[in-house]
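Let's practice the habit of predicting before peeking. Look at the sequence and jot down your guess about where helices and strands might fall. Then scroll down.
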Amino acid sequence: MINSYPKYTIFRFSKKQKKYLLIKRIMDIFLSLFLIIVLSPILLVVGVWVRIDTGENPIFKQKRPGYHREIFTIYKFKTMMSNTTLNGKNLSDDERMTKSGRFLRKTSIDELPQLLNILKGEMSFIGPRPFLINDLGSYNYEQLIRFEVLPGITSWTAIHGRNNIPIQEKYNYEIYYVKNIRFLLDLKIFLKTIFLVLSQKNVNDNVNSKRIGAEICEDDKATE
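Done guessing? Here is the structure:
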């Protein structure tokens, strides 16, 4: 069981890696603040569009495990209706997807509210993608290394076809990332992510795939 594991792993970063992680956090703060200011008109327009399209709070909120498995609230623009059933039938993600949501996911604009998560120190631009709380019991001890760094908007997994690989393989990609974290690796992830977003390949976050809607939206309803 995950609860039997200590909160910290036995992994130790090198002095060079520790120095880079500190510099990386400083860069995250300034860049996220800069982007929030510059993109504020776009964020406002998108928020109004989602509000009109869904008739709901435009921000989707969900609890995810972050640094050292501390639980935080992740923010996204809402891309699906909160209604999870119709006439007693569970609706699929495609049936719940809104018109605005399809565009936002296709362009990855739905991820922009996570700039606030970065500014708050809960996330980084690059790091292991935060999965669901329910997934905590599926990690082995070595895979817990992913929680030694802040989770990210994009990740080493994301540039390796995140929508097409098994969950355990995703975990193992992050073992490599954390053990080898450095500026050049993050730069490679950043540039590849830009290419994927522009080409619109593998841009969807399928963390919630194959889960029933009621389970997905539980925290969303509780926090709105």
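How did you do? The radius of gyration is 17 Å.
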